[in-house]
Q: What sequence folds into this?
């Protein structure tokens, strides 16, 4: 593992995007954003398949994420846009040793959708994991029906590695997912700079 693991903040000054730890003080904004986007997010939200399982409340979720991050098991970011909470991006399932891999999952407020926030956040997190933390591979699993997320991985050049049948419990049922991935060898100079170049932009991100 290279560099400081947690806590960490990643900033893109040009777009006003910050990836930072989720905080207890985010609860009010988090609840408002989730409430506003309830129907928009429902088709893509992971659910618990075992009857009687309960999703942790907000404060328990923050504690859980913080524990996992301090154990180097995940990198759980809040997505902040222009100073306001607008979603989450989590690098989960981090495996060290001979695999050096993690999976990115994310959701964003529909009020900032279409502005390039999600691909930018994914690019920032991917570069951090591959070049600062020393992971070798990042993958993203997406429902075939989720056209918005499919556009994200297409913009960033993630490789389509095929379909996983009944891969994850989503919106109350087991759902197929397509797996997309990148390794360090695919992007030796980083994905963020390539993405910004494709949009005709210059460099503008840094970590603190």
A:
């Amino acid at each position: 593992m290279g560099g400081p693991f947690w806590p960490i903040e990643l900033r893109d000054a040009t777009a006003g995007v910050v990836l930072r730890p989720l905080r207890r003080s985010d609860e009010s904004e988090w609840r408002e954003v989730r409430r506003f986007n309830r129907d928009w997010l429902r088709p893509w939200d992971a659910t618990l398949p075992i009857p009687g399982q309960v999703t942790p409340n907000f404060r328990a979720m923050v504690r859980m994420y913080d524990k996992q991050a301090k154990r180097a098991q995940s990198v759980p970011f809040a997505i902040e846009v222009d100073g306001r909470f607008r979603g989450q991006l989590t690098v989960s399932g981090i495996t060290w040793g001979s695999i050096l891999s993690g999976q990115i999952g994310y959701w964003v407020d529909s009020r900032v959708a279409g502005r390039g926030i999600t691909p930018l956040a994914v690019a920032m997190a991917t570069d951090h994991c591959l070049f600062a933390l020393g992971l070798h591979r990042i993958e993203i699993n997406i429902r075939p029906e989720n056209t918005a997320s499919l556009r994200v991985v297409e913009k960033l050049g993630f490789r389509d590695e095929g379909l996983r049948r009944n891969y994850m419990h989503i919106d109350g049922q087991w759902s197929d997912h397509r797996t997309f991935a990148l390794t360090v060898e695919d992007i030796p100079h980083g994905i963020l700079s390539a993405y910004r170049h494709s949009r005709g932009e210059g460099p503008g991100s840094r970590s603190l």
